[in-house]
Design brief:
four-stranded antiparallel sheet, elongated, 347 residues, 7 helices, alpha+beta, Immunoglobulin-like
């Protein structure tokens, strides 16, 4: 077996086999087990056959081969990560296999069978080469430890918040922070019981923060429930960010809400709840869907701040269709105001 590993043709064949395995759709464990030699041993082994042809034994050749292979893997990996191609097995494996095959070709051309084409190069001895490989390995390891990973998939974000200025104050503070990757235009709107009481266009540079204090003394304390919405780059819908605030003493919710709640006592029923934050009495249309089909339509009429609930029996719905979706519409509206889902399995 050791003679086989001294044959450059055998090493090149192993490289081809490892490369094909790395690119195949085989299970991860199989790919790792059969392709690991391509990253850890084979490139250095082929190069050692080419430039250290007179090594006495494979035990003397192995440490240099492993060190050289790891260094090559690290260098090629860093180089690929810095290119638009990126570090993927579909590029890295063929590259390492190509280096191995090239080394094996040089070794074969310098073998006794091809003595006429053999060129002797003055190469350092094994101890010197091992030290050089070890130093290079340390340098690559330090470089890898200090180099951040590619951030190509990182996305920025924006923050929106609502805070009371103090416990007894008649004002609130609204703020926006731009943590996007570019300067961004916004429109911020503050609602009370569905009515816009403040709005402003903004353009913030990267990292810039904006805030404003809003006087709400004209709003009765029982109605001091607020909904802030942030729209990005002129897009009117849906809001990019949303924040709510309910001040002490308020009895109204900040936004109209819709919930589907499973019944713990009866696995064949669920509760539907709606809370209205509309500025006036509103007649809603509530569609309950099961498996994508409309199962029930209800028209609750709610006053501002009122909560409505009903228990729904879905025992007649087949097991495979018990993915429920509720859609709440304002009267005459074509787009749902709120949506909720529930997946329920009967016991």
């Amino acid at each position: 077996m050791t003679r086989a590993f001294a044959d450059p043709r055998f090493v090149a064949g192993l490289a081809v086999l490892s490369g094909i395995t790395a690119l195949s759709p085989a299970p991860v464990a199989v790919r790792v087990a059969l392709a690991a030699p391509l990253a850890l041993v084979l490139p250095g082994w082929a190069l050692s056959l080419a430039f250290l042809p007179d090594s006495e034994s494979w035990l003397g050749r192995l440490p240099v081969s492993v060190a050289t292979s790891v260094v090559l893997s690290g260098i090629t990996g860093l180089a690929l990560a810095a290119t638009p191609i990126g570090l993927t097995r579909f590029v890295w494996a063929p590259l390492l296999a190509g280096v191995t095959i090239l080394g094996a070709a040089v070794a074969y051309s310098r073998s006794p069978e091809h003595a006429l084409g053999r060129i002797r190069l003055g190469m350092p001895g094994r101890p010197v080469l091992a030290v050089v490989a070890a130093v290079a390995l340390v340098m690559v390891a330090v470089s890898l430890a200090r180099t951040p990973l590619s951030a190509g998939h990182i996305r920025g974000y924006s923050a929106l918040w609502l805070l009371p200025t103090s416990a007894e104050s008649d004002s609130i503070r609204i703020g926006v922070t731009n943590s996007e990757l570019t300067d961004t235009s916004y429109r911020v709107v503050l609602y009370s019981e569905g009515r816009a009481i403040f709005q402003r266009p903004l353009k913030l540079s990267v990292g810039e923060r904006w805030s404003a204090v809003i006087d709400v003394s004209s709003i009765p304390k029982e109605h001091r429930s607020f909904d802030a919405r942030l729209f990005k780059n002129g897009d009117p819908s849906p809001p990019y960010r949303e924040a709510t605030l309910v001040l002490p003493g308020s009895t109204a919710p900040p936004v109209t809400g819709l919930w589907l709640v499973p019944d713990q006592a009866d696995a064949g029923t669920m509760r539907v709840l709606v809370t209205s934050a509309e500025p006036k009495t509103e007649r809603f249309r509530l569609e309950l869907r099961a498996g994508g089909d409309v199962y029930k339509v209800i028209h609750p009429r709610l006053q501002p701040g009122e909560t409505w609930s009903r228990t729904i029996d879905f025992a007649s719905v087949p097991q495979g269709q018990r993915l429920f979706e509720a859609r709440l519409y304002r009267a005459g509206a074509g787009a749902p105001l709120r949506q909720a889902t529930l997946s329920q399995t009967a016991g």
